[in-house]
Q: What sequence folds into this?
């Protein structure tokens, strides 16, 4: 059974988005702060450049950026394995017998 990477990415984005939203409401714990850290960094950068969003925009920025970053971090090994498999398959096709 082959699961397409795009479906896995969408499911993972949804799960990391939920995790980041829960982490936003529990910022007093270290695991929650680590989960929301990418969004926190972007929001602080926006604050320094005087483009910070307040209220609902703050929450959307924190959750959205964190979800995208963690999804990319978790999917990077799968993409690397897929790339290595393709390159080794191409190499094996051209090998003399």
A:
């Amino acid at each position: 059974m082959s699961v397409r990477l795009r479906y896995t990415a969408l499911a993972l984005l949804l799960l990391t988005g939920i995790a980041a939203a829960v982490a936003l409401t529990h910022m007093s714990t270290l695991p929650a702060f680590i989960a929301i850290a990418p969004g926190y960094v972007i929001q602080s950068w926006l604050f320094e450049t005087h483009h910070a969003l307040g209220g609902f925009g703050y929450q959307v920025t924190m959750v959205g950026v964190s979800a995208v970053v963690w999804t990319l971090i978790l999917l990077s090994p799968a993409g690397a394995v897929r790339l290595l498999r393709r390159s080794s398959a191409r190499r094996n096709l051209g090998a003399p017998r």
Remarks:
- The mean pLDDT is 88.
- The radius of gyration is 19 Å.
